[in-house]
Each structure stands twice: as C-alpha cells, then as structure tokens.
Amino acid sequence: MPWRPPRARCGGATLVYVLCLLVIILLLGISAAQMALQGEKAARGERDRQIAFQAAEEALVDAQNDIEGLPGAPGRSSLFAPGSAAGFAEGCGEGGALGLCLPAAPEAPALWLSTDLDGAEASSRTVPYGQFTGAVMQTGQGFLPSRRPRYLIELLPFHPPGAQATTVAGGLATESYVYRITAIGFGAQESTQVVLQSYYRKQAAGAGP
C-alpha cells in the first residue's frame, strides 16, 4: 500500500488559519461599528448646531421687531427713535429697558464679549425671546431648542460714509446711531450654543434708504 502522510497536522493548521481569519473579521466589524457610531454622533452634533443656529437667527429677528415694532405688538419701538439714546444704560438697563446697552469704554473690550450670555448674568442683562414682542417659541422637547434664545442691543455711533463726525457727547456721536444686536441660541442640548451678531440702523420716518 502506498504511504500516506498523517492528516492531524493539516487539520491543526487549518484550524489556526480559520481562527486568524475570524479574528480579522471581528476586528473589521468592530472598526466599522466605531466608524458608524462616530458618524452618527457627528450627525447629531451638526443637527443640534443647526437648531441652535436657527434659534439665534430667530432672536436677531425678534430684536429687530423689538426695535421697529409690529402691528399690534409695538415692542419698545418708542425707545429707538433715530438719533435718540433714551432708555440705554450702562449695564444694559433693567425692567422695560432690559438689554439696552451703552457701549463699553474705548479701552475696554466690547460689551458683548465681556457679558456671560448664557450664565447667571444673562437674566439681568439680556432679553429672552419674545419678552417685548409677544413672539412664542416652543422649547425643551424633541428637536427643539432646550430654552429660549436671548439677545442684547448695544448703541453705537454711526457716521454716514463721507460725512464728517460731529460733536461727541458722553462718548456717543449726537447725530445718528446704529444698533449692534448680539444673540445666543441653544440646541436640544443646552451645551450646544451659537452666537450671531448683526448691525441694524433705524431710518427716520420718511427717510430714504
């Protein structure tokens, strides 16, 4: 009879090969699962950032409606007469003048940079969305902001291009002002925050663009 080699060693080598292949497949599966989890986490973070971004945009619009007034909801439009600084105060006012801020001293950082927009200080210096306009925003459920956005309005001197600066009284030019609006919005997670800013100038009645 012809001699045949024993099969035990072949079977052992095959087992080792199969085990190595299983380990490689397992590692590939773990890696794919981690990548999928990271992608899902990034998608949730981006979605939350968009929620906060849209809330901050809504706060900017609410501030502009506060300045201009709406039919049936004038807000504080009477405090925003062109060329008037009435109602604005250091520390951003309180009560009916809440969030109306005189600018910081020239050597100091801008007021919006030195204000804690989302902390304990915010309630005494910033305006919650809809407080003076009556606008309503749902919060705290599902894909909604965790809480209402807030804003503050700083009064800044404005000089039309080509115009000569006029007399300055109390650090503010007397002829015209522009409003710097700073708003903070919150995502579904309160730790997700977006700060937006815009400049707004109110035209005198009957004035051209």
Written description of the protein model:
Helices cover 33% and strands 16% of the residues. The chain has 209 residues and is an alpha+beta fold. The strands form 2 sheets. Strands 1, 2, 3, 6 and 7 form a 5-stranded mixed beta sheet that branches. Strands 4-5 form a two-stranded antiparallel sheet. The longest helix is centred in the N-terminal third of the chain and has 61 residues, at 8-68. The radius of gyration is 30 Å and the shape is elongated. It starts with 7 loop residues before the first helix and ends in a 9-residue tail after the last strand. Mean pLDDT is 81; it is low at 167-174.
Q: What integer value in Å does the Rg equal?
A: 30 Å
Mean pLDDT: 81
Number of strands: 7
Shape annotation: elongated
Q: Give the helix tally.
A: 3
What's the end-to-end separation, in Å?
A: 109 Å
| Beta-strand residue fraction | 15-25%
Category from helices, strands and their pairing: alpha+beta
Low-pLDDT regions: 167-174
Q: What characterizes the major β-sheet?
A: 5 strands, mixed
As a percent range, the share of helical residues equals: 25-40%
Order of helices and strands: HEHHEEEEEE
Pfam families: PilX, PilX_N
Protein name: PilX N-terminal domain-containing pilus assembly protein
